[in-house]
Amino acid sequence: MEFIKKLEVWFVVGSQHLYGEKALQQVEQNAKEITKYLNSKNLFVNIKLKPVSITSEDILALCRAANNQENCVGLIAWMHTFSPAKMWIGGLSQLTKPLLQFHTQFNKNIPWNEIDMDYMNLHQTAHGDREFGFLGARLRLPRTIVVGHWQQTECYQKIDRWMRVITAIYDQQNLKIARFGDNMRHVAVTEGDKVEAQIKFGYSVDGFGVYQLVDEINSIDNDKITQLVQEYKKIYQLADSLTQEGEARTQLIEGARIELGLKAFLDKGGFKAFTDTFENLHGMNQLPGLAVQRLMEQGYGFGGEGDWKTAALVRAVKVMGFGLNNGSSFMEDYTYDLDEDNEVVLGAHMLEVCPSIANSKQNIHLDVKPLSIGGKADPVRLIFDSKAGSAINATIVDVGERFRMIVADLESVNTPHNMPNLPVGHVFWKLKPNFDIGTQAWILAGGAHHSAFSLDIDADMLRTFAEFFEIEFIHINENTKISELKNELLWNEAAYKFK
Ligand code: MN
Q1: 341 CA to centre of ligand 1 in angstroms
Q2: Cα separation of 457 and 357, whole Å?
C-alpha cells in the first residue's frame, strides 16, 4: 500500500471579493491553521491547502486541475464566508473527484462581548455552506458532509474514514484483476458484465490460462522456497506432518512455491486482485490456500471460483482498512448452527480466509488436509479462530442493468465450541436485526454466497463508495423490516429506470 503515501486531498476554501482584502487574508490564515491541525492528526491522506477561491474562473481552473492531478484523490470544500454558488457551477459540473463538504466554523464559540458586523461578515459558514450545499443538491453531486468544529475528534475521524473510502475509489479506478481460469461452471452470482464494471468502477478483469501461472510457479528458485518455509515455521504452529521429517513436507514446499509464483505473476503484471477456481488447476499440485491467505493479508483482493466482483470488493475493503487492527477477508456463508433464538453463521471458505481477522497471531495453525473436490493433492492452509466485534458483510451483484451493493451489519462472536476437525480459518457471526430477518433480507436482495467481510469497515463507508460509483445500495441493519425492504427494492427498480 505504498501508493497511499503519495496521495493528497485538496482543501478548497470558498469566499468572494465583497469583504475586502483584509478579510480574505484572514480566511487564508484560518484555512492554513485548520490544514496544519488536520495534518498533525496523521489522517489517512495528507491535506494540501489551495489558494482561496473567489471567482468562477479560479474555481473552474481548480476543479480541472484536480481532475488532471493524478495523485489528488478528492476535495474538501469549506465556505468560510458566503461564496455565491453560481460561481461554483462551472467547476463542480466538471469535477470528477470525490467531494467532502466540511461544514465547520473557524471559531468554536461566539465572542459574546466583541461580536460585531466585521465578525459576522467573516464567520458565515452557517449560511455560506448552505448556499454551497444547495448547488451540490441541484447538480445531484454525490458528496459527504461532515458537520462540527474542526478540532473535534469526531470530525477529523469522519474525514479520515472518508479518505479511506476515496483512496479505495482511486484504487478501484486503477485496479487490474487477474483471473486464472474462468467462472466455476454453472454458477450464476459470480458472473456479471465485465465491460459495465470497467465503465462503472474503472477496474479491468483479464483472464489467463492456468499454464501461464504454472510457468511462473515452476520458475521459482529453490533457495527462495527454503527461505519462505523457514518464515512459515517462525510465524505459524506447524502440524507434525509439515515439519522437516513430516510425511506431508512436500506439500508445504509446493505451497511455498505456489505463493512465490503467484505473487511474482501478480506483481509483474501490476495485479492487485485475482481469482482462481478449483475446476481449473491443470499443472498445479494443489489449490492455492496458504498462498491466497497470505496474499490477502498483504492487501491483494481475492474471489474464489472466478468471482472477480468480490475480488475487487475485497481489495477495496483492504485499502479502506489499511493500518487498522481487526482485519478483512474474502468470505462465504458456509453453514449454520440453528439453535432457536441463538442462531449463528459459520463463515469460512474451502481454504481462503485471511489471517488478518485471526484472534491471536500466535495461535495460527499451518496444516494440510484433504479438500475432497478438485482432484488435486491436499492443500496447505492456515487454521484459526476470528476476533469478536462489530462487522459487516458486503457483496456486489449484477442484477441486469445495474450493480447492487448489499451490506449487512453483523456481530462477530467468539467460536462457541471447539471444532478439532474443522480444517479452515473461520468466523462466527450473528445477523441484524435477527437471524430470520437478516437472512431473508440478504436473500431477497440477491446477495451472493460470497462476500467481503470486515471488522474494520462500516456500512456508511461502503455507502459513500456506492454513491460515488452510482450503484444501488441496500443496507441490512438493526432497523430492517422486510415489508419496507420489499418496497425499497421495488422503488429502486423504478428509480434506476430514470438514471
Ligand atoms: Mn465459494
Answers
A1: 27
A2: 13
* Ligand 1 centroid distance, CA of 269 (Å): 25
Please give the grid coordinates belonging to residue 320: 479502506
Q: How far is the CA of 426 from the centre of ligand 1 (A)?
A: 14
Q: Is 334 within 8 Å of 349 (Cβ atoms)?
A: yes
Separation between Cα atoms, residue 152 and residue 139, nearest integer Å: 30
Q: Which letter, b or e, does each residue of 463-489 get, where b requires 16 or more Cβ atoms within 10 Å of its Cβ? A: bbbbbbbebbbbbbeeebeeeebeebb
Nearest alpha-carbon partner for 349 in 368, 370, 335, 360: 335
User: What is the C-alpha to C-alpha distance for residues 107 and 327, in angstroms, rounded to an integer?
Assistant: 38
The string of pLDDT tens digits covering residues 326-367 is: 999 999 999 999 999 999 999 999 999 999 999 999 999 999
Cell numbers at 248, concatenated: 506431508
Distance 376 CA to ligand 1 centre (A): 17
Using DSSP's 3-state secondary structure scheme, residue 486 falls into helix
Q: Is the pTM of this model over 0.85?
A: yes
177 neighbors 275 (Cβ within 8 angstroms): yes
Alpha carbon of 156 to those of 1, 162, 198, 226, 460: distances in Å? 22, 10, 32, 46, 16
Amino acid letter at 382?
L
Buried b (16+ CB within 10 A) or exposed e, 400-420: eebbbbbbbbbebbebeeeee
